[in-house]
Amino acid sequence: MILWWIGNLVLLLVIAPVVIFLLRGVLDAAKTVRRTLNDIGQVGGQMVADLEPVPELVKTLSYVSQTTDGLARYGAALDEIL
Amino acid sequence: MPAAAVATIIIAVVIVVVLAAFLIGIARVLVDVNKSLGTVIGAVGTIAKQTEPVGYVVESIIDNLATARDGLTGLLVSKVGASGAAELIASVDPLSAAPPEAPAAGHRPPTPPTPPAPAYSAAAPMASTATMAPPAPAPEPAPAFEDQPQVIRHQRAFDFPTTPPSAPEVIRYRRAFDPTEAATETEPAAPAPDVAAAEPPPPAPEPAAPAPEAPASRFSGAGTSRLVDPDD
What we know:
The complex is a heterodimer. By secondary structure, chain A is mainly α. Chain A has helices spanning 2-50, 56-81.
């Protein structure tokens, strides 16, 4: 009977705190992961907003092509002039 | 039932309840993490889709610009020679390095060695770069500020050509390249009005004196180039 009580005390004073300590560590780590993911989500949203003008590069390419053609004509004209 | 057994059961129930509470909290956090990961994956997919055309578009832009640069450089080299082209580019680009030695046709006077660039100061805010550094302060008392405006001092730092404005650089280089051509043409600035007048003229029934060189159709598009929006 005495050993049983000792076992109860060990279960209450040692096993339970250790289990709670370990579970609290897991819970804190999970909360940290959630905060980090929220930050990553915010940065991803900002990146998407920053990259919205990237498709305009196609228009830039068209402008550069037209400018190159104009430069070619201008160079030919300069060649004739000079 | 002994009291020890009852206490054991109570302790076990308490521990199970605490375990369940913690596990439920962890499960909720993991559900939130799953949602956040879905959002992040969607954002990454959007980023990948948005940046998809960057590669070939930038390569095409670089190719076009390189083609234009090569063409204009080739034109300059064919007209004024390699050294003349380098000096001409250096004369219009203050950021480019000056040629090591001036050619015979160029009348660029020898320049004194450039003093080391001083540290940035609020008194000369336009001279923050090394190439735009103002000359070192002279030991003698400096004249009034109105006598040395900022523009003049920067022109000295750039080593701009000091020829009078009536003698353009291009004309001098062209004469140096082909001296016989200067004798056949009395007005050096004659081709400029041709380019300016390259706009499609009204149909003239009787051309008084057609220009022997440079057909107007070659220049008609040079002055009227206009960027067209591909979306329009």
